[in-house]
Amino acid sequence: MARNKNALRKHFVQAWERGQDEPDEEWLELAHLISNIEVEPNEETEEEAFYDGDGTPEETVVSVARAYAPEGQFDPEDEAQALIESLQNEIGDARKIWHRVVRSDGKKEWVGRATVLDIIAGAGEASEYEEFSCSIRFDEKPKETDLSDDDGGSDGSGED
């Protein structure tokens, strides 16, 4: 049975531009001073009962929008955090980024366009370090890639 630390799961971001179908190769790792990343599942369901059953309603998932919520300390010199900070006063498509998640064992990744919500880049009590947090929600089902056949994997930096 394999058990992996959460810190081995990698999250990367990069700017998105209208009309861009695929992300560039240059990723910014969202890790520096990030102490926690929660998963925020957003699933919509419908219940319906059928005559070919016993009348008990069946629940069907009709949409999924997976999101991740990183939080930690704010460092304006960290490129990934600075990218997200730059979006905090934007609306619409200006809040879009590319998001890449690599599973903790390095054998799968998910990549897709996402929207950044609830950005906090510098807040908190006077005696504490500045806080950083946001929610990064995939806009559609992310592309899943099997990396288990790779030649050792990529660190996501574009510098293999």
Structural write-up:
With 160 residues, the chain is mainly beta. Helix content is 4%, strand content 42%. The chain has one helix at 79-85; strands at 10-15, 28-29, 34-40, 43-48, 58-64, 67-73, 96-102, 108-121, 131-138, 143-146. The strands form two sheets. Strands 1, 2, 3, 6, 7, 8, 9 and 10 form an eight-stranded antiparallel beta sheet that branches. A two-stranded antiparallel sheet has the order 4-5. Strand 7 and strand 8 form a beta hairpin.
Task: Classify the beta-strand content into a percent band.
Answer: 35-45%
- Number of contiguous helices: 1
Low-confidence stretches: 156-160
User: In sequence order, what are the helices and strands, one letter per element?
Assistant: EEEEEEHEEEE
Structural class computed from helices and strand pairing:
mainly beta
Terminus-to-terminus distance: 30 Å
Please provide the count of β strands: 10
What radius of gyration results from the CA coordinates? 18 Å
Task: Identify the overall geometry.
Answer: globular
Quote the average pLDDT: 93
Quaternary status of these chains?
A: single chain
Q: What percent of residues adopt helix (DSSP H or I)?
A: under 10%
Quick one: biggest sheet?
Answer: 8 strands, antiparallel
List keywords for this structure.
about 160 residues; eight-stranded antiparallel beta sheet; two-stranded antiparallel ribbon; 1 helix; disordered C terminus
